[in-house]
Design a protein that fits this description.
This protein has 123 residues and is mostly beta strands. Helix content is 0%, strand content 49%. The chain has strands at residues 3-6, 9-12, 17-23, 32-38, 44-50, 54-56, 64-69, 74-79, 88-95, 112-113, 117-122. The protein starts with a strand and ends with a strand.
Amino acid sequence: VQLQASGGGLVQAGGSLRLSCAASGRTFSNYAMGWFRQAPGKERDFVAWSGGSTYIADSVKGRFTISRDNAKNTAYLQMNSLKLEDTAVYYCAAARAYSRYSDYTSSGQYDYWGQGTLVTVSS
């Protein structure tokens, strides 16, 4: 499985971006899809996941939304009301065979990772 993340860029604080993650493979609908981010000098943090349900990190809840289009093998991260602290490289990830017993806030649950797309929020 290959993941291709796109949609990052430079945006002013308060603005919006939509990230996309296109996946290869025939069983995309079975995957749990996640988004993580890594700011300069910091660890990679969980942002959101989508599987049988969705879950958003508290730090972005109310501003970010995760969605997916299984017909297009693509997951999305809609980011609104962006803040300076949202500046990071955003990574998408996929886990084979979604299970409701797994903790998809943990990076260790994922089998495949995209290359990352940089989001820079300016003042």
